[in-house]
Design goal:
mainly alpha, Arc Repressor Mutant, subunit A, single chain
Length: 211
Amino acid sequence: MTENEVAGTRARILDVARELIAERGYSSTSISQIAGRLGTSKAALYYHFKSKEEILDGLLFEPMIAFQDLARAASEAPSGTHAREVLGTIIDFIAGPSSCLAAFQNDPSVLKEYAQCHNYQESEDLIVKALAGPRPTNVKLVRARVALAAAKQGTLAAQSLGDGAITPAMREEILSAALRALGADSENISDRGRVRAPTTLPASESISPRS
């Protein structure tokens, strides 16, 4: 196989795995089922991924790293970041590079365990602090966390209702709901600083070892 062929096959395996996980859940999806839908043998699949856990890595590792980069960008904005921009970036991230997370809604424990291994909570905390502003009270911190949850869960819900697609109008509805949760006094943290959403990540790139 050429390098391009290997990359293409890995991407196809991940696509099929994502479909099956969304349908049946991670724990109920087997290597045999993935190979069967691909129309290949388990041995051929094992050439690319040595276990189901490696397939999980292939689906989630890069989005997790990209989320860490996003959180770091939000926290390092010199004068804070406009809440609308931060939350909009989160929505675009969940709908883009992190869209595979929707496949794990039936297996939240799997996603939670994986996230713990990759310091996901620390990244969320950075974003919450950016949303809460430079002098956060407990109320502002709670509102910021609720707003972040609204942006994430609203996007996942919209994806499931729209066959994975989110219209501009729906994006604005999700963003407005998240901003309402944040509260008017926290809506404008600053109009300076800019957070860039991670670019779409190729599913076929190499996998890093699990923590």
